């Protein structure tokens, strides 16, 4: 029962973290600037994931949506992408 409740969150993490990070790091593996490649990969893994949680709020309250987007990106998105 708990597995079915956690299944959407697990799939979301797999899609937005594992696949995007792995694909970006694979494409940038021979880059001359590996640190910038890692930073770009983290941004590409965090931004779509955070934007996925506030789509309707951007239409109703854009300033609040930007604050929530920034907060979720920093508090939840970045640490999970780094792990």
Description:
This protein has 4 helices and no strands. With 83 residues, the chain is mainly alpha-helical. The chain has one domain. Helix 1 runs antiparallel to helix 2 and helix 2 packs across helix 4. The longest helix is centred in the first third of the chain and has 26 residues. The chain is flat. This is Membrane spanning protein. Keywords: Membrane, Transmembrane, Transmembrane helix. It comes from Sediminispirochaeta smaragdinae (strain DSM 11293 / JCM 15392 / SEBR 4228).
Topology summary:
Elements: H1 2-27, H2 34-51, H3 57-60, H4 62-82
Largest sheet: none
Q: Got a strand count?
A: 0
Give me the secondary-structure category.
mainly alpha
Helical residues, percent:
over 70%
List SSEs in N-to-C order: HHHH
Task: Estimate the mean pLDDT confidence.
Answer: 83
Q: How many separate structural domains?
A: 1
Gyration radius, rounded: 15 Å
Instruction: Please give the alpha-carbon distance between the first and last residues.
Output: 27 Å
Uncertain segments = none
Strand content: under 5%
| Morphology | flat
Count of helices?
4
Organism: Sediminispirochaeta smaragdinae (strain DSM 11293 / JCM 15392 / SEBR 4228) (Spirochaeta smaragdinae)
Keywords: Membrane, Transmembrane, Transmembrane helix
Protein name: Membrane spanning protein
Transmembrane segments: 6-28, 63-82
Question: What's the short version?
Answer:
This protein has about 80 residues and is mainly α. About 85% of the residues lie in helices and about 0% in strands.
């Amino acid at each position: 029962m708990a597995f079915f409740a956690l299944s959407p969150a697990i799939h979301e993490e797999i899609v937005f973290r594992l696949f995007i990070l792995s694909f970006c790091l694979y494409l940038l593996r021979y880059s001359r600037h590996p640190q910038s490649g890692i930073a770009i990969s983290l941004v590409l893994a965090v931004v779509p994931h955070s934007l996925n949680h506030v789509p309707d709020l951007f239409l109703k309250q854009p300033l609040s949506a930007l604050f929530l987007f920034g907060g979720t990106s920093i508090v939840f998105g970045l640490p999970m992408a780094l792990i």
